[in-house]
Write a structure and sequence with these properties.
This protein is an alpha/beta fold and 494 residues long. It has helices spanning 15-21, 25-36, 62-77, 81-87, 97-107, 119-133, 139-158, 168-179, 195-207, 219-234, 248-251, 271-280, 312-382, 390-417, 425-434; strands spanning 2-9, 41-48, 52-59, 92-95, 187-191, 211-216, 239-244, 257-260, 286-290, 307-310, 477-478, 483-486, 489-492.
Length: 494
C-alpha cells in the first residue's frame, strides 16, 4: 500500500490550465473506473474544483502508481507525451504522510485561495461520495476521507478561521452593515458586474437588501446578472433592476449606498453628479464605497457634506485585520491537522504491521523451500539418484527454516517495536516495497505469454498484459548477439 496525491491548484497553474483538467460530476465516475481498472491501483478519489484538480491513489508502489496516473491523464484528456510534459511543472506530488497532510490541509481550508472558506469541506465530501458510488473506495480510503471530513468539521467548529470575511467585496458589504444597523431598509446601487461585482451582489442578496440596482458599461451584462440575482432576492421580498450607466446621474439619488467596481480607466462618479444626488435626497446621507482600481469615484466627492466615501485603502485595513485574526486561528487549525494526521498514520500502521510480517514470512519461506528442494535434487544426483535419508532431509529442512527465522527476526522486531509511532508507516511501506509484497506477493517467477517456457525478463516478475497468443509488443527491435531492445532496455534472449 502506497498513498499518493498528484494535483495542480491556483498556486501552481493558471485558470486556463485548471479548466482543462477539471472534471464535472458526470465525468467523475468513468475517470475513477479508468484509474482503478489497473491492478496497480487499489483505491482512488478525484477532487476537482474551480481552484484545484487532485488525484488520490492507494497504489501498489510509488513508481507504478505515478505511471498509472500519467497514462490516465494522457488517455482521459487526450494528451500526447509533449503536452503532458508541458503540464508536469504545474503538478505537485505527495506520498505517504505528506499526501495525508496535504488532504487534511486542503479540507481545513488552509490551502484555499481565501483562507477559511467553507466550500471546500462540501467539495471533499462530494468527491468522496462520488468515488464510493463508483466503487473506487475500499477500507483505507473510506477511513482516510471520513477522517478528512471530520478534520474539516473540527476546524469549522473549534476555530474561528471562517468567522470574518477577507475579500474586498465582502469587506465592502460588511462596511455597509457597520454604518447602517439594518440593511433591510437600504436601496443599494452596484456599479460593475465583474467578479467583485458578482460577489458583492451575492452578499447583498444574503443580507436581504430590499432594492438592488445593477449598472454596467454593458447593459446586457447588468441585465443578465439582474436576472440571475432576482430569484435569490425575491425570497426575501426584495427586487433587483438593471440601469443603463448613461442614466447614472439621474439614478444616483435613488440609492442609499453605492458600491462601485467597474474597470473604467477614469472616474465614473464626480463631485457635480454627487451634489445633484445629494440635493435630490433632501438631507439623507449618501454612502459610496469605491473598490475599483483605478478608482471610480473622484476623491473630491468625500469633501461633500453628508457624503461618506471609502476606497480600497480604507477597506484594506479591514481585510488585513480580518486576515490577522484568521492567521491566528490558522495555527489552531494546523494543530488539529497535525493531530489527525498522526491518528490516521497510527491506524495505518496497526493495520499493516501484522499482515506485512505474515506476507514477508510466507514469501521468505517459499524462497527457502525452493532452494532447499534444489539442494536436495543436487545431492540426489551426487548419490546416483538415491533419495536422501530422513536425517539428511531433516538437515536441509532445519537449515531452510533457520535461514527464514534469522532473516525475519530483525524486520519483525523493528516493525512491532515501532507500531505506536505514526511515522513508522515508512518502515512498513519500505518493507513491502523492497520485498515486493504487493506487486509480486507470491514470489513466483512470471512466464512469458509468447514463450511460456521462458521467464519474462522484461516485466521483471510483473503481470504481463499481453494476451495469450499475441506477439510480445515489448520486443520491438532485434539487437546484436541475439538480444532484443525494449523500451530503452536491452534484454538477453536465447
Amino acid at each position: 500500500m502506497t498513498l499518493l496525491a498528484l494535483g495542480l491548484s491556483h498556486k501552481t497553474a493558471p485558470v486556463a490550465l485548471r479548466e482543462r483538467l477539471a472534471l464535472d460530476g458526470a465525468a467523475l465516475s468513468p475517470a475513477l473506473q479508468a484509474l482503478t481498472a489497473s491492478e496497480l491501483v487499489d483505491e482512488a478519489v478525484i477532487l476537482s474544483t474551480c481552484n484545484r484538480t487532485e488525484y488520490y491513489l492507494d497504489a501498489k508502489d510509488m513508481p507504478k502508481g505515478l505511471a498509472v496516473l500519467r497514462d490516465f491523464i494522457c488517455s482521459f484528456y487526450g494528451l500526447d507525451e509533449r503536452e503532458y510534459a508541458s503540464l508536469r511543472p504545474h503538478f505537485y506530488f505527495k506520498q505517504g504522510k505528506e499526501a495525508v497532510e496535504h488532504l487534511f490541509t486542503v479540507v481545513a481550508s488552509l490551502d484555499s485561495q481565501v483562507l477559511g472558506e467553507a466550500q471546500i469541506l462540501g467539495q471533499v465530501r462530494t468527491a468522496f461520495a462520488a468515488a464510493s458510488a463508483a466503487g473506487a473506495v475500499a477500507k483505507v480510503f473510506d477511513k482516510l476521507f471520513k477522517q478528512a471530513i471530520e478534520v474539516g468539521r473540527l476546524v469549522r467548529t473549534d476555530t474561528a478561521i471562517g468567522a470574518q470575511s477577507v475579500s474586498i467585496s465582502t469587506a465592502a458589504v460588511n462596511l455597509v452593515h457597520q454604518v447602517y444597523d439594518k440593511l433591510s431598509d437600504l436601496n443599494v446601487l452596484l456599479l460593475g458586474t465583474g467578479q467583485m461585482g458578482r460577489l458583492a451582489a451575492q452578499y447583498l442578496a444574503e443580507k436581504g437588501v430590499p432594492q438592488l440596482f445593477l449598472s454596467s458599461r454593458h447593459l446586457d451584462h447588468a441585465q443578465a446578472l439582474a436576472e440571475e440575482m432576482q430569484g435569490a432576492l425575491r425570497q426575501g421580498g426584495s427586487a433587483v433592476a438593471a440601469l443603463p450607466i448613461e442614466d447614472l446621474a439621474q439614478s444616483l439619488h435613488r440609492a442609499d449606498v453605492t458600491i462601485s467596481c467597474t474597470s473604467a480607466s477614469g472616474y465614473v462618479i464626480g463631485p457635480a453628479m454627487v451634489r445633484e444626488a445629494r440635493r435630490r435626497r433632501h438631507g439623507r446621507p449618501l454612502l459610496l464605497i469605491d473598490i475599483a482600481l483605478p478608482r471610480d469615484v473622484d476623491p473630491a466627492v468625500g469633501e461633500i457634506s453628508d457624503v461618506f466615501l471609502y476606497d480600497l485603502d480604507d477597506l484594506g485595513v479591514m481585510v488585513d485585520d480580518n486576515l490577522k485574526t484568521r492567521a491566528g486561528e490558522a495555527k489552531k487549525a494546523e494543530q488539529i491537522v497535525a493531530e489527525q494526521v498522526d491518528a490516521f498514520l497510527s491506524w495505518i500502521q496497526a493495520e499493516q504491521v501484522t499482515p506485512t510480517i505474515k506476507d514477508l514470512n510466507q514469501k521468505l519461506t517459499m524462497y527457502a523451500e525452493r532452494e532447499r528442494d534444489r539442494a536436495a535434487k543436487a545431492l540426489r544426483g551426487q548419490h546416483g539418484g538415491q533419495p536422501l535419508t530422513a536425517a539428511e532431509q531433516g538437515v536441509l529442512d532445519a537449515m531452510a527454516a533457520s535461514i527464514v527465522k534469522k532473516i525475519m527476526h530483525g524486520p519483525m522486531m523493528r516493525l512491532r517495536s515501532q507500531a505506536g509511532n505514526p511515522d513508522s508507516y515508512r518502515y512498513t511501506e519500505a518493507c513491502r516495497y523492497l520485498f515486493g509484497l504487493d506487486v509480486n506477493p507470491s514470489g513466483k517467477p512470471h512466464r512469458c505469454h509468447v514463450k511460456p517456457e521462458r521467464l519474462c525478463q522484461v516485466d521483471q516478475g510483473q503481470p504481463c498484459d499481453i494476451p495469450d497468443g499475441a506477439g510480445c509488443g515489448r520486443r520491438v527491435a532485434r539487437g546484436p548477439q541475439g538480444q532484443s531492445t525494449t523500451a530503452g532496455k536491452t534484454v538477453k534472449t536465447k
